[in-house]
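Late entry, evening session. Most of the bench is empty. Finally got around to the prediction I had been postponing all week. Sequence below, unchanged from the version circulated by S.P.
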Amino acid sequence: MYFSFSDKSSLLLIFFFHGVVFSFLLFKKGFETENKSDYWLGTFSLLSVMYVAPFMLGYAGWYGRLPYREILFYVPFQQLLLLPPVLYFYFQRLFDKSFVFRTKDLLHFLPAFLYNCYILLICLADKWVLDEVYFYANGQDKDFDAWYQFLGFLSMVYYLLRSLMLYRKYTFLTFNALSFADTMTFIWAKRFLWVFIALVGIRLVFFVINPEWDEFGRKFWYYLTFSFLFYYITISGYLNSVRTKTSFSDWQVTDTNKSSEAQMDLADSKSQHEPLPDLDEWKARVVVLMVEGKMYENPELTISDLAEKLGTHSKRISQAINQGFGLNFNDFVNKYRVEALIKKLERGEYSMVTFLGLALECGFNSKSTFNRAFKRETGQSPKEFIRNRFQN
């Protein structure tokens, strides 16, 4: 196979090769761990290397030589309408353990399907129907038509906004469902979203600076930057093994006429604003569990654990805590953990057990989470608190 090695083609080849390798590794990991988010990320990585391929092969001389030029012309390497929804469904599966891909979700891939049908028809017409090359008579790759590039940019913006909404909902539900939410906020996933924003940003910048997308040689730095960003997303996703414990379906209201995101908005609104009947009674029952049952000592306590003990559903307990105490579930439980720790300090136990050891006994599962919760509750770091309270 012909390949002319140059500085540009060789540099993009490195990213291309590693992208293919990590695509395989992600599919393998997804199969072994049964984690479907890895399949979505593997697909994103594969589509990304396809996106870079025309420029890598172009700098390697394919556009100037037959039959390679026709491969680039008639194979739709740049799946601009497929990349954004694939990345969006990766986030969907990443944040929501109950997510199941449904038939109606295929609509997100309809624009990409139509574009591929368009390219197929062009290929059939030029190669088998017409006596001459008609659609590619101008020698320009259809993937770089301005209308298609601009439509791809709009698709990226749309799915970026949807992904940001997903993360906002995920954060809201996590802090209202888990007592260890600080360790499940997926800081690395937030960085993914920043990279997604960067992808949209550089695409906008290069689109404005170099609007002539058929001018092949002027786009190298854009594709090099894209390669760095998709490489970061792929490697970070592969190396991270954290799985969400949050299920969006546990918080959705039953309304078949609303989309899942609309249901989530309604559920959030009800949880925050709809008055809870017998609020004082539910508050008292929750407090009894926390004080007498010491459920806060469970480092993996979830709101469904409380709901099960009280024979109700999670949303009702969340309402009781949100409206009765003005706190989310995570902060509510950590408040009891901090209070229990302070009582241990007042009994002088800090002289016998390490400070972190006491925190773990009270239900905290990490030093960083404990430090943040303690300072949020007391306004002081643990060391400052001991010095001011016990060493003066």
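Two things to note before I forget:
Residues 146-175 form the longest helix (30 residues).
Confidence is low (pLDDT under 50) at residues 253-271.
Will write this up properly tomorrow.
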